[in-house]
Amino acid sequence: MKNSPQSPRSLLHVFAMVLLGSAIGFLSDSASAGLDLLRPRPIHRISVDPRTGAGQTYFDLALEAYRRGASFDPGKVSGIYIGRCYYADSPMKPVASLVVISQDDQTLHGPGTNRYSRLVPLVDRESSANRYDKLQAKDLSQIKDLASDFSEELALPVESRRETYVVGLRTPDEDSRLYRFRRVNVDGHGSELHLRLECAEDQVCLSANSTLGRQTVLAFEGQPIAQCRYFKRIDLPSPVLRVAPSKHVKVPANTKAAAKN
Asked: In the 3-class helix/strand/coil scheme, how is 16-44 assigned residue by residue?
């Protein structure tokens, strides 16, 4: 028996059902799917040396803005910050990124409670750069739960004269990383949160990634591997994270935590 050709009406119906199924699948996707802790990734090539200031890639612009920034008190802010990250090896490619900043009240032995701040930077390399620009309330709990899980890999933030930094803790699979946060005033747009990611292990750091596996990252000491800017904030119910606080971790002496640049 020969298959009869489908009419244009039936083909249109099939096409519409496919689109509807795709839309339903997209809407039902986990808001946190694809998100990972911001980590170093291999630098295969660098189009412009970030230290020279030459060129005007998105990476360069984010780096210049970061250098104008200053430290801030993480205990006075909270919420989900939405923005973009740019890697040194792909300086024109924006990557979707979030930072979850929370205040966590912990009751320790003895009377009273102690409040701890958490700064957890996340990236999604697989989705479009604007995926999280219009987060809805129903998405926030998934993201804050994921940030809570990743917070165990990070030390508590430390406020210095020029910046607020967080150290990524060393594990058997991953060397320590340095997350350097600054608040930058933008003319006509208030302030933005900026972040610079560096290796904190001499000139080489080992980075573990769920999709890339164990990767060795080569970078100059103090060279940014990624520059991120966050231009939108969403309020988040407090408290956000409920994990035991980590001890403060000192930045390795050979890392330029208080670099003039």
From this structure: HHHHHHHHHHHHHCCCCCCCEECCCCCCC
Helix (H, G, I), strand (E, B) or coil at 139: helix
Q: Which amino acid is at 28?
A: S
Tokens of residue 67, six digits: 């250098």
Give residue for tokens 């040194």: 88
Answer whether 81's CB lies under 8 Å from 233's CB.
yes
DSSP single-letter state for residue 140? H
Tell me the longest C-alpha to C-alpha distance in the chain. Answer: 83
Query: What 3-state class would DSSP assign to 74?
Result: helix
**Per-position pLDDT tens, the chain of length 261:** 444 454 444 433 433 333 333 333 333 357 777 899 998 776 544 444 444 445 589 999 999 999 999 998 888 888 999 999 999 888 899 999 999 998 876 655 555 556 788 999 999 988 899 999 998 888 888 899 999 999 999 999 999 888 999 999 887 777 788 999 999 988 767 789 999 998 876 666 666 655 556 666 666 667 788 999 999 999 875 554 444 455 555 555 554 444 455
- Does this model's pTM top 0.85? My answer is no
Residues pairing with 217 in the sheet? 205
Residue among 82, 97, 87 at smallest CA distance from 57: 87
- Alpha-carbon distance of 172 to 184, in angstroms, equals 35
> Which of 171, 229, 218, 224 shows the shortest CA–CA distance to 197?
224
DSSP designation for 68? T
Token digits of residue 140: 């926030």
The CA distances from residue 23 to 17, 26, 83, 89, in Å, are 10, 5, 24, 33
Q: Are 206 and 216 in contact (CB under 8 A)?
A: yes
